[in-house]
Amino acid sequence: MRIAIPTNTIAGSGKAIKLAKIIQGILTDRKIISKIFTEKEWDSRIYKYDQIWISGGDGTVNYFINQYNDIKKPLCIFNGGTGNDFHALLYGKTTVEAQINHILQSTSKPIDAGKCNNLYFLNGVGIGFEGAVAKSLKDVNKFGGKTSFMISILKHILFYKEQHYTITSAEKTVTGKFFMISIANGTRYGGGFYVAPLAKPDDGLLDANLVNSVSPLKRLRYLPVIEKGKHLTLAIVDYYRTKKVTIQSNQLIKAHLDGEYIEDNEMKIVILPAHFNFIF
After folding, report:
1. How many other CB atoms are there within 10 angstroms of residue 25's CB atom?
2. What pLDDT, on the 0 to 100 scale, is given for residue 139?
3. In this predicted structure, what is the pLDDT of residue 70?
4. pTM for the complete prediction?
5. How many CA atoms lie within 13 A of 265 on its CB side?
6. Spatial CA neighbour of 208 closest among 276, 272, 126
7. Cα 105 off chain centre by
8. Residue 140: its pLDDT value, please?
9. Which of 2, 127, 223, 252 has an alpha carbon 20 to 30 Å from 262's alpha carbon atom?
10. For residues 205 and 212, is the Cβ–Cβ distance under 8 A?
11. How many other CB atoms are there within 10 angstroms of residue 247's CB atom?
12. At what angle do helices 15-29 and 96-104 cross, to 10 degrees?
């Protein structure tokens, strides 16, 4: 068996590349052939390996699935980033060696992906307040997944102004001002915010959470509730599941995919059932 280890040298402020070398060292001791690919070396050679072990956080994984969106080789993730939400969803708390032992004894399973316009995601799309937060974090040196996310939230929570959206799916069409719009495949993002606590990344559905316009003081009140994933029954939240949703606005839509900032005039989001294969 030959294993490719794609990584990003700046992910986790250098944590990812250090972790990749630790993984390679363990594999070498077990006489398993592997090669580390830094971000400038990601090319078609990766397709020739039997398994792909990604060392990095959600941003690295998002970059990988968008560059190799057609890959069907078995994939896994090692938590080498500042935000490791999809790793936490698949593997929970584990050590590197324990995860390697588990992966080498397991087979891959299909995992859904989401697609927003022409970009792929695993965790979810966050629009509105979340998009504004992601924009403020763009090109910022993040010193901790949840810490950097919280600082940006606190800066925006009192002054963010909701904009008007029209949200269309087979289930319903709603229009109005919304504070947050989360369309999720996984349960969490932002370094541990359980925005979609009931989501399953292999059920062929997206979990939609629409948070209506809310005052700054209530935003502060409900933030810890959303963090813990206890918000689905709140009166300000409209929660449902769908396979496809289109979001439009009379203003530029600010959003993030797996924490990576994007903006567009319209967001067309669909689920791609069983699109990737992960070992977990």
Report:
1. 11
2. 65
3. 97
4. 0.93
5. 1
6. 126
7. 26
8. 63
9. 223
10. no
11. 25
12. 50
- How is 115-128 classified by DSSP, letter by letter? EETTEEESSEEEEE
Classify domain 119-274 by CATH number.
Answer: 2.60.200.40
Terminal alpha carbon distance of the chain: 18
Residue with the two structure tokens 């072990």 = 53
Looking at residue 226, its amino acid is I
What does the CA dihedral 75, 78, 83, 89 come to, rounded to 10 degrees? 60
Q: Looking at the domain 2-106, which fold is it? A: Rossmann fold (3.40.50)
State how far the Cα of 52 lies from the Cα of 6, in Å rounded to an integer.
Answer: 7
What average pLDDT does this structure show over 215-219? 92
Q: Do the domains 119-274 and 2-106 match in fold?
A: no
Task: Give me the chain's average pLDDT, please.
Answer: 94
Q: Is 47 left (phi over 0), alpha (psi -120 to 50) or beta?
A: alpha
- Judged against a pLDDT cut of 90, whether residue 83 lies above it is answered with no
Query: Backbone dihedral region of 64: left (phi > 0), alpha (psi from -120 to 50 degrees) or beta?
Result: alpha
DSSP secondary structure string for all residues of 151-172: HHHHHHTTT---EEEEEEESS-
> Residue 30 gets which letter from DSSP?
T
Cα distances from 58 to residues 54, 55, 129, 214, in angstroms, run 10, 10, 20, 29
Nearest to 18 by CA among 75, 86, 96, 72: 96
Give pLDDT, residue 153: 80
Q: 105 by DSSP, 3-state: which?
A: coil
Q: Residue 67 and residue 236: Cα distance in Å, rounded?
A: 37
Let me know how long the chain is. 280
Q: Model confidence over 131-190: pLDDT tens digits?
A: 999 998 886 655 445 566 677 788 888 889 999 999 999 999 999 999 999 999 999 988
Domain boundaries, the chain: 2-106, 119-274
Output the six-digit token pair for 177.
């001002």
